[in-house]
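Slide 14.
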Amino acid sequence: MTSGKPIPSAGQSAAERDLVKLGRISGLFGICGWVKVFSDTSPRSNILNYSCWYLCVAGEWTEHQLVEGRAQGKGVVALLQGFQDRDQAAELVGAEIAVPRDQLPPASAGEYYWTDLVGSRVTTLEGVDLGRLESLFSTGSNDVMVVKGDRERLIPFIHGTVLEVDLIQGSISVDWDPEF
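Slide 15: predicted structure.
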């Protein structure tokens, strides 16, 4: 690794160290050490609001300083301290990007960070367990939950379908036909 200091307790998961994943380095941009960033923030360029990124490369988290970044087409590109050419930056391709949770603004009422929802049990109004929320994705018009139980279900994360979210209990109640 060219730059960055290891995070203590590197054997722990990001959740155990209270890091929140915001994206990943998806490729190289140019010859001067810039990288392409796939950002899970909304809008995508919000990932550039954090000057200190934690990157996971080969299972080890290291701290890196963001020197510069900008929106580029539909994506984001960034330059990190200590990476001055394409060969150095190539070490980072595929790295997950995270920031400490305390750097994130609090979620507004009725809004949630996806990372806080993943792993929740999803049940119907009648108490039928549909499984665990594995991930979420955006379609542009709304977000969709990927719920894995006896089978995989795609359930829209919209008002009227999602009735209650309990982050403390790790549960989500939905108005959803279990046969669908």
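Speaker note: The radius of gyration is 18 Å.
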